[in-house]
């Protein structure tokens, strides 16, 4: 076996052409190409400027296109593109990465139409190697949602198997659809999953909600009922932020414990699935602590909880005061705001802050 190692920027067509020339002059005929280049720069769309978006697109879009155009006249046996399962499942905060991999999938189909070999592989996360392996917590989080990691041995075997078939695009991942839909209830309604999802989401939700609701209703003491529900919520938060439940105080704001915007949506999805409720995206904004969240959720389920005494609060805000009415109106308005409307409000607020800073 003859091996040649060459370092080049795959986004630079001249650099790629130079490597291909070296291969042609010093190696046997080139029979296959594997494009596995990629980087990540995660962030919600409002935070992604053109530079950050293009930085992630370049290795996928420019790199794959350079390999395509510079080798399309060669009699290749294989043209393999390492895409990502994020194209199939979606991935919050990775709009740029998903777009780049979607291009790889489209390129594979384009080459097939042209009569050229191509195979795009929508890989799930790998263990030991790859981007997901760099962040151990990310791999654990995905596994808890139903998307387990692929070992290098499993990946090698899977690659050998898919090379024997004729599809232009194949998704490869250890995937528990039922578990995934528990975290992302809306996923079961997608065109892809509707063909795979055999049981109704309603049946699953009934099974999930029965446990905690029955336990709360069986508890006669309101104080113990509240304690039981707060313990349940601490466990749910702990699974999202990857922190021991015992280290989560019920009266401490969740964002101070590391609950960011993406985790907030994950927590909302978990509670929607486990409690059978429709919850607003602003839930943890209006109810930032577990102590505040518990009675809100219990009320939506129609289960009364004993409320904690707060002499300080009562001395500062008397029932029926203007301050009480203002807070109640604001909370009601925020609960009715859709995710799109909330995004617009945040954009306007950020723009106002930016204008203010420019005037300083």
Topology:
Elements: H1 13-26, E1 32-35, H2 50-71, E2 78-84, H3 86-89, H4 95-113, E3 119-123, H5 131-134, H6 136-145, H7 152-162, E4 169-172, H8 177-183, H9 191-194, H10 201-218, H11 222-241, H12 261-275, H13 283-286, H14 290-301, H15 311-316, H16 322-335, H17 339-358
Parallel strand pairs: 1-2, 2-3, 3-4
Q: Could you report the average pLDDT, rounded to the nearest whole number?
A: 82
Measured between the Cα atoms of the first and last residue, the distance is 66 Å
CATH architecture of the largest domain: 3-Layer(aba) Sandwich
General shape: elongated
User: How many beta strands in the DSSP annotation?
Assistant: 4
Under CATH at level 1, the class of the largest domain stands as Alpha Beta
**Portion of residues in helices?**
55-70%
The named CATH superfamily of the largest domain? NAD(P)-binding Rossmann-like Domain
Instruction: Assess the beta-strand content as a share of residues.
Output: 5-15%
Output the helix-strand order: HEHEHHEHHHEHHHHHHHHHH
| Main beta sheet strand tally, sense and closure | 4 strands, parallel
CATH topology of the largest domain: Rossmann fold
Give me the Rg, rounded: 26 Å
Spatial ordering of strands, largest sheet: 1-2-3-4
The DSSP helix count reads: 17
Structural class determined from secondary elements: mainly alpha
Question: Which segments are poorly predicted (pLDDT under 50) over 5 or more consecutive residues?
Answer: 199-207, 309-321, 356-360
Number of domains: 2
């Amino acid at each position: 076996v003859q091996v040649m190692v060459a370092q080049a920027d795959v986004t630079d067509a001249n650099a790629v052409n130079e490597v291909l020339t070296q291969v042609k002059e010093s190696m046997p005929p080139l029979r296959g190409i594997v494009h596995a280049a990629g980087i990540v720069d995660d962030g919600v769309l409002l935070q992604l400027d053109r530079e950050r978006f293009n930085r992630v697109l370049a290795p996928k879009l420019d790199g794959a296109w350079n390999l395509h155009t510079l080798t399309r006249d060669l009699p290749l046996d294989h043209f393999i593109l390492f895409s990502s399962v994020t194209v199939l499942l979606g991935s919050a905060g990775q709009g740029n990465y998903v777009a780049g991999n979607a291009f790889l999938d489209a390129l594979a189909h384009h080459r097939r139409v042209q009569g050229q070999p191509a195979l795009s592989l929508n890989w799930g996360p790998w263990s030991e190697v790859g981007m997901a392996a760099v962040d151990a917590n990310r791999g654990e989080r995905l596994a808890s949602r139903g998307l387990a990691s692929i070992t290098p041995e499993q990946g090698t075997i899977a690659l050998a198997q898919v090379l024997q078939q004729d599809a232009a695009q194949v998704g490869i991942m250890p995937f528990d659809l039922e578990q995934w839909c528990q975290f992302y209830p809306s996923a079961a309604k997608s065109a892809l999953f509707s063909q795979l999802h055999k049981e109704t989401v309603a049946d699953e939700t009934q099974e999930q909600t029965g446990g905690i609701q029955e336990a709360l209703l069986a508890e006669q003491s309101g104080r113990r009922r509240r304690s039981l529900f707060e313990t349940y919520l601490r466990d749910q938060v702990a699974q999202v932020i990857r922190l021991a439940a015992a280290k989560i105080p019920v009266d401490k704001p969740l964002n101070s414990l590391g609950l960011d915007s993406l985790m907030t949506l994950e927590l909302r999805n978990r509670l929607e699935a486990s409690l059978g409720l429709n919850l607003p995206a602003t839930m943890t904004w209006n109810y930032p602590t577990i102590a505040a969240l518990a009675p809100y959720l219990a009320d939506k389920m129609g289960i009364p909880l004993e409320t904690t005494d707060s002499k300080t609060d009562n001395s500062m805000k008397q029932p029926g005061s203007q301050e009480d009415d203002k807070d109640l109106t604001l909370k009601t308005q925020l609960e009715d705001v859709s995710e799109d409307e909330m995004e617009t409000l945040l954009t306007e607020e950020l723009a106002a802050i930016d204008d203010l800073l420019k005037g300083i």
